[in-house]
């Protein structure tokens, strides 16, 4: 996607890495300003992911036609380089393959808890450092580029990497936490067997292999792999996301059993130097979860409602204006903090269903969504839909919008079954309420793509196939949405 340059921070006197991302201009020859804004937004979201396995982000922006990230400089070997060298002679010890994957799971656990999905996990984005730690690179880059019509300059490159792309991502660009787990399964399988079994001659062939080809036996391709580890890899490589492990935490716990004693790994991990980070990690590793008694003691009682106090209408208006300015600068996390603080004041004074409070609650839910905090946004939209239905009725446009946004939150974090159930109910309700046909058609398209992403290709083919003539009747044979649905149906094929 670009180049990484070594740089030096003259102000703080430290080495840095600068990643430039090359993009084409739009068809009219103008730069894609929307892409730049989205890139800055994703970089800010990623910068809040504080984890020792993620390089710190120091800055981001654009220079000429390039976007750039300034990051912590990491001394280590990319997994792609390691694999290239290992293929010539030797192999990665089983224990170290499990250890690398377990550390990646630790990073994914932290990211998924914040509703961040990597979308492009591959050996080139994983680094093994001499102290034995693992770094996961490029969080947020694929997300920033995913919804842009701008294509990367290198011919044949698609968003995400076809050789490591989960079936739902390849078929319908549906991503969630389990998308990352699938990609991790491909990487782990390759570390152990020294080859990517899904790699095809072309990007399209690789994507087809992920959607159609059953994974090969790992133990038939390498001796000494424990049967339990093979079974874990096969579960990670399940075509249907629902058949994969529930979370990165679950995968981490299973991987730990295979890397309790790590053998020497000369040339890649230095066992002779006493790295302070290992001292730190050894102590932290002995910290266990609190006992039930301690956990019970830590449970705080529900705080009573704040008593009504006089409010400053001018101050409320200024606070909302400040949040709006932060939102305009894509500083969504800070805008959410400002609005959440305001909520504590206005709810206590006016109640949660006061019209002015409802407006602030909507602003907060929207900012949480834009900032990628989907796990907080989902209940915020759900509560809004419930409260608004009581005052304006279930057919109110704002109620239907909040229900759609809640379902979108669940879809983004990989809760596909729940999202499909909510979207299906919303579709039935919108039809009965007689809402605008354009909205109904778009909702049907969204459901079909989500069904495809969940692995239910038969139902997706049925949903999108039924949608096709209705789209043509509504928009004509040349409409972009019609072409997109045709392309998806062509990709699904005519399986029975």
TrEMBL record:
CDD domains per the UniProt record, alphabetical: STKc_PknB_like (cd14014)
PROSITE patterns from the UniProt entry: PROTEIN_KINASE_DOM, PROTEIN_KINASE_ST
Top-level EC class as recorded in UniProt: transferase
InterPro entries: Kinase-like_dom_sf, Prot_kinase_dom, Ser/Thr_kinase_AS, TPR-like_helical_dom_sf
EC identifiers of the protein: 2.7.11.1
Keyword Nucleotide-binding in annotation: yes
Key words, A-Z: ATP-binding, Kinase, Nucleotide-binding, Serine/threonine-protein kinase, Transferase
Boundaries of every Protein kinase domain copy: 1-256
GO molecular function, one term: kinase activity
The keyword Kinase is assigned to this record: yes
SMART domains: S_TKc
Superkingdom assignment: Bacteria
Protein's UniProt name: non-specific serine/threonine protein kinase
Lineage: Bacteria, Bacillati, Actinomycetota, Actinomycetes, Streptosporangiales
């Amino acid at each position: 996607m670009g180049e990484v340059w070594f740089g030096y921070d003259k102000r703080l006197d430290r080495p840095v890495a600068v990643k430039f991302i090359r993009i084409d201009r739009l068809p009219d020859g103008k730069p894609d300003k929307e892409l730049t804004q989205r890139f800055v937004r994703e970089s800010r979201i990623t910068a809040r992911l504080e984890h020792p396995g993620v390089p710190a982000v120091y800055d981001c922006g654009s220079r000429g036609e390039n976007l750039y990230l300034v990051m912590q400089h990491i001394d280590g070997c990319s997994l792609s380089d390691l694999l290239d060298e290992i293929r010539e002679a030797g192999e990665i010890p089983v224990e170290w393959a499990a250890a690398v994957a377990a550390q990646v799971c630790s990073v994914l656990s932290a990211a998924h808890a914040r509703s961040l999905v990597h979308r492009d996990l591959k050996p080139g984005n994983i680094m093994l450092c001499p102290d034995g730690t693992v770094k996961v690179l490029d969080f947020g880059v694929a997300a920033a580029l995913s919804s842009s019509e701008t294509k990367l300059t290198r011919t044949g490159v698609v968003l995400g990497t076809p050789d490591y792309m989960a079936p739902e991502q390849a078929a319908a660009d549906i991503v969630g936490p389990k998308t990352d787990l699938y990609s991790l399964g491909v990487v782990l399988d390759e570390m152990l067997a020294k080859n990517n079994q899904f790699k095809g001659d072309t990007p399209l062939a690789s994507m087809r292999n992920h959607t159609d080809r059953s994974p090969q036996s790992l133990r038939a391709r390498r001796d000494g792999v424990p049967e339990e580890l093979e079974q874990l890899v096969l579960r990670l490589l399940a075509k249907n996301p629902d058949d994969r492990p529930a979370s990165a935490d679950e995968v981490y716990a299973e991987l730990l059993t295979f890397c309790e004693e790590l053998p020497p790994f000369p040339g890649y991990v230095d066992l002779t130097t006493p790295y302070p980070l290992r001292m730190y990690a050894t102590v932290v590793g002995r910290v266990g979860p609190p006992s039930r008694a301690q956990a019970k003691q830590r449970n705080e009682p529900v705080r009573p409602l704040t008593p009504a106090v006089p409010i400053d209408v001018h101050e409320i208006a200024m606070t909302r204006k400040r949040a709006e300015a932060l939102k305009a600068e894509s500083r969504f996390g800070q805008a959410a903090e400002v609005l959440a603080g305001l909520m504590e004041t206005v709810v206590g004074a006016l109640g949660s269903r006061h019209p002015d409070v409802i407006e602030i609650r909507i602003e907060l839910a929207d900012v949480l969504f834009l900032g990628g905090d989907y796990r907080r946004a989902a209940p915020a939209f759900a509560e809004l839909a419930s409260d608004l239905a009581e005052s304006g009725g279930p057919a109110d446009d704002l109620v239907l919008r909040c229900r759609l946004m809640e379902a979108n939150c669940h879809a983004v974090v990989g809760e596909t079954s729940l999202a499909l159930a909510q979207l299906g109910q919303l579709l039935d309700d919108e039809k009965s309420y007689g809402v605008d046909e354009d909205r109904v058609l778009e909702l049907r398209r969204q459901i079909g793509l989500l069904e495809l992403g969940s692995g239910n290709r038969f139902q997706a083919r049925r949903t999108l196939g039924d949608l096709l003539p209705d789209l043509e009747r509504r928009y004509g044979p040349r409409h972009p949405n019609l072409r997109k649905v045709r392309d998806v149906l062509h990709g699904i094929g005519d399986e029975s």
